[in-house]
Every structure is written in structure tokens, then in C-alpha cells.
Design a protein that fits this description.
The chain is mainly α and 88 residues long. Helices cover 72% and strands 0% of the residues.
């Protein structure tokens, strides 16, 4: 038996349902600071150097999220194959 549920949500509504913070203000502030540094002609402008103070620990979190999503997809594929064999 299969069930299909369609949920019509905006990205903002989905973010709220998942309990994720609204970081639009933070992103805008970060971009404004980068633009200021670029306009000031920062010596040796390197985007990674400019983003580093804001991304401390964030890259590890993103990697953990990607690994979690990969495990979920892998487990789903394995479960669907097993379900197909069981129904035969």
C-alpha cells in the first residue's frame, strides 16, 4: 500500500516547520561587509579569507547535513528494494 501526500509550502514556511533560523538579515550584513572590503581595495582580496570568520564551524555542520541526507537516500533505496522482493 502506498500513500502520497503533497504539501504546498513556501520555502519560508518550510524553514519554520523545520525550526531553522531566519538568517536573511545575517546574510545581508555579511554581503554588505564583503562589499565594503572589496570597495576599500582590501589587499590580497581572497573570498575564503573574508568568509572565514562567518563560517567557523558552519562547514562541518554542512558536511554533517550532507552525510545525513546521503544515509537517508541510501537507506530509502535499500528499503524499497527489500519491499519489492518481499511482495514477490
Amino acid at each position: 500500500m502506498n500513500f502520497k501526500i503533497d504539501v504546498d509550502m513556501t520555502p519560508d514556511e518550510m524553514r519554520r516547520v523545520l525550526g531553522l533560523p531566519d538568517i536573511a538579515g545575517f546574510q545581508q550584513e555579511m554581503l554588505d561587509q564583503i562589499r565594503e572590503r572589496m570597495a576599500a581595495g582590501a589587499d590580497g582580496y581572497d573570498p575564503l579569507t573574508l568568509f572565514k570568520p562567518y563560517m567557523t564551524g558552519g562547514l562541518g555542520s554542512m558536511e554533517a547535513l550532507q552525510q545525513m541526507m546521503l544515509k537517508m537516500m541510501t537507506n530509502y533505496k535499500g528499503a524499497s528494494k527489500e519491499a519489492g522482493k518481499a511482495s514477490d
